[in-house]
Specification:
Helices cover about 50% and strands about 10% of the residues. By secondary structure, the chain is an alpha+beta fold. The protein has a domain of about 240 residues: Hypothetical protein af1432, CATH 1.10.3210. The chain is globular and about 70 Å long. The strands form 3 sheets. A 4-stranded mixed sheet has the order 3-4-7-8. Strands 5-9-6 form a 3-stranded antiparallel sheet, covered by helices on one side.
């Protein structure tokens, strides 16, 4: 069977699957599941075109990894065929651990477990299934391989993941401010003292990349309407978990029941292999299928939230710099108690508050390094003559509170 297939990607054009192993990994159910997980969760309620999936993104990351390594090879960096394939597989599988709706339910279905940790567990399972063909991939992913620039291409402030999702999310949302000069960025990559660097000629492209990331956070990832929808979805799952624990019958897929029933730790996944298999069957369809059933549930809170989300009757939201005052929270709780006739302790399901942060560029730990013509390596925040880059290096936080529109706060 010919496994050197060509995929027509809307962002990059034709993408060639580079090896039979990669083809077989793409065909695996763990990876095919990503077809049914939207890249941007509920952002399509704001940007109708945001229908792309983690499957799209993973293929794009694999493709860009290949391009980046070929560019480094052209500059005399020795990269073996095994390293080339391993890095491309690491890019391909970096998001295989995402749950339904991507980041939306990360702290609800798997409280305290990052998707990267689940991705690693999936990779370990695949490594066993493919007779340890992914040994190098695991080393690259966990940063235990001696040549550190490979891991920086997989996970850093300027990794392949970010390059693809900025391009892809900008394309599908239509938010052109997220467009970056990806060809030039890849062409300017280099390696110095085993560290990934950008040649000085590419400094303006990196400035543009950081600024595009900041704008995409405020305009797409942290768009207030998307935040409101996500908080409603979180409250739906929280309420379903509460009812399940209280003994209320809830119709949903068996895989979803596993994660409504109780919270699982990372150790549980290691000790109970069936958990990974159950999670490997979860996707957006499980959530939306359950919501369409739960909209007729006798519990008015669960049913009301499900109906509102299906009809796009979203919470009103206030996003601001100053903290949400305790008096505002208590006022919302009391008004919901009065208007909806629910217990005060249950009012928390009908509103939400918290904090979002825009981390466009963090200098600590994993800086984007510029290789100056003098041979000196400098953090982009110091190399750039734009004061905005230094400003962007600071984490910007905003506070939000959202509540039903028929209540006035």
């Amino acid at each position: 069977m010919n496994k050197k297939k060509i995929i027509n990607d809307p962002v990059y054009g034709f993408i060639t699957i580079p090896s039979e192993l990669i083809y077989d990994l793409i065909q695996h159910p763990y990876f095919q599941r990503l077809r049914y997980i939207k890249q941007l969760g509920l952002s399509d309620l704001v940007y109708p075109g945001a229908q792309h999936t983690r499957f799209h993104h993973a293929l794009g990351a694999m493709y860009l990894m290949g391009r980046a390594l070929e560019s480094l090879r052209a500059k005399g960096i020795e990269i073996s065929e095994k390293e080339m394939e391993g890095a491309q597989i690491a890019a391909l599988l970096h998001d295989v651990g995402h749950g339904p709706l991507s980041h939306t339910l990360e702290e609800t279905l798997l409280a305290g477990i990052h998707h990267e940790s689940v991705s690693y567990l999936f990779m370990k399972s695949l490594n066993e299934q493919f007779n340890h063909a992914l040994d190098l991939v695991l080393q690259l992913f966990r940063n235990s391989y001696p040549r550190k620039f490979f891991h920086q291409l997989i996970s850093s402030q300027l990794d392949i993941d970010r390059l693809d999702y900025l391009m892809r999310d900008s394309f599908f949302t239509g938010v052109m401010e997220g467009t970056i000069g990806i060809d030039r960025i890849i062409a300017m990559l280099n390696v110095s003292n085993d560290q990934l660097v950008v040649e000085e000629k590419g400094i303006f492209s990196i400035e543009s990349f950081i600024n595009a990331r900041r704008l995409m956070y405020w305009q797409v990832y942290l768009h207030k309407t998307a935040v409101s929808a996500e908080r409603m979805m979180v409250n739906i799952i929280r309420r379903a978990q509460y009812l399940y624990h209280a003994g209320e019958p809830l119709m949903c897929s068996e895989s979803l029941k596993v994660f409504l029933k109780e919270n699982h730790s990372l150790e549980d996944f290691t000790e109970q292999p069936h958990l990974l298999e159950s999670f490997g069957q979860l996707d957006d369809n499980d959530i939306w299928g359950a919501i369409k059933i739960w909209k007729d549930h006798k519990d008015e809170i669960l049913a009301g939230l499900c109906n509102r989300l299906l009809l796009r009757e979203l919470f009103q939201i206030r996003l601001r710099n100053s903290p949400i005052k305790k008096a505002e929270i208590e006022s919302a709780r009391e008004q919901i108690h009065q208007s909806f006739g629910v217990l005060r302790k249950d009012a928390s399901y009908l509103f939400s508050y918290g904090r979002v942060s825009n981390e466009a560029y963090i200098t600590d730990g994993k800086p984007i390094n510029i290789l100056m013509k003098s041979g000196k390596v400098v953090d982009i925040a110091l190399a750039s003559d734009l004061p905005s880059i230094k400003a962007i290096s600071k984490i910007v936080e905003k506070n939000y509170i959202c509540w039903p529109k028929n209540i006035s706060l």
